[in-house]
Amino acid sequence: MDYQICVNYEFKFILCEIVMAEINLLKSIPKIKRNIKLRVNEDKDKYVKIAGKFGKDYFDGDRKYGYGGYYYDGRWVTVAKDIISHFKLKKGDKVLDVGCGKGFLVKDLLSFGIDAYGVDISNYALMKCEPEVLGRLHLGSCDNLFFPDNSFAAVVSINTIQNLDKKGCLQSIKEIERLAPGKGFIQVDSFKSERQKKIFENWVLTAKFYDYPNNWINLFNKAKYTGDWSWTIMEE
Predict the structure, then answer these.
(1) What pTM does this model have?
(2) Most exposed of 22, 106, 206, 235 (fewest Cβ within 10 Å)?
(3) What is the pLDDT of residue 39?
(4) How far, in Å, CA of 14 to CA of 133, rounded?
């Protein structure tokens, strides 16, 4: 268990356990309505194979293969504000978005003076990035982040690490903690009922590891993660 030195009201030094916290930093993003039947057919395996390439079809192709068109619409502005507020960031602080896609969040963090960067496994997404983030996005995987320890004031990863197997997820959590101890935010797909699990399995194309919240938290603990987290729960 990790600890930090705290001072109580009698000015005595004591050891305080560092605990993770659940917080929804994506609360401002509108709920998405999904046509689950679109991907529930005999071609699902084909859709999974195409989506798993994280190329044009996944980002900007037919909806059955992924986003159905991944374009900047300004929705990440309020998310950027909430991230800055939550981590008490100031202008010039370095922040990393792990699984940055085309760099929408990086762009909006930059607009508030944050020294933001991104990493993504998709060469297509990086080639189609927003002009404002040129030179700030890097090709790489979340389980092998090529930055020194304590490089960032905060590291966020939204719906990304679950695209690896369980071992890869564990290593990714460790990497995020290494780059910003106690200043991480990880959002992953999850479910709280069998109904939600079925909806998830019928819709999601790229996740290799997924589980109930308690089991995700167990994985966070195993990685000695001290940052924060949230869940993306699928609904029809």
Answers:
(1) 0.89
(2) 22
(3) 78
(4) 44
Nearest CA to 200 out of 174, 158, 97, 192 is that of: 192
Spans of all domains in the chain: 3-233
Count Cβ atoms below 10 Å from residue 225 Cβ, excluding itself.
22
Q: In whole numbers, what is the pLDDT of the chain averaged over residues?
A: 90
The conformation of residue 133, written as its DSSP 8-state character, comes to G
Dihedral through CA 140, CA 120, CA 172, CA 26, nearest 10?
160
Q: Which residues pair with 139 in a beta bridge?
A: 120
CB 87 within 8 A of CB 113: no
Tell me the β-bridge partners of 186. Answer: 157, 229
* Distance of alpha carbon 95 from alpha carbon 86, whole angstroms: 13
- Reported confidence tier of residue 236, pLDDT bands at 50, 70, 90: low
Q: Which tokens in the block code for residue 38? A: 């679109």
Q: Which of 24-33, 115-124, 193-202, 214-223 has the lowest mean pLDDT?
A: 24-33
Closest Cα to residue 185, out of 91, 79, 102? Answer: 79
CA 189/CA 119 separation, integer angstroms:
19
List Cβ neighbours of 154 (8 Å cut-off, separation of 6 or more): 83, 87, 89, 93, 95, 96, 180, 183, 184, 185
Is 3-233 CATH 3.40.50.150?
yes
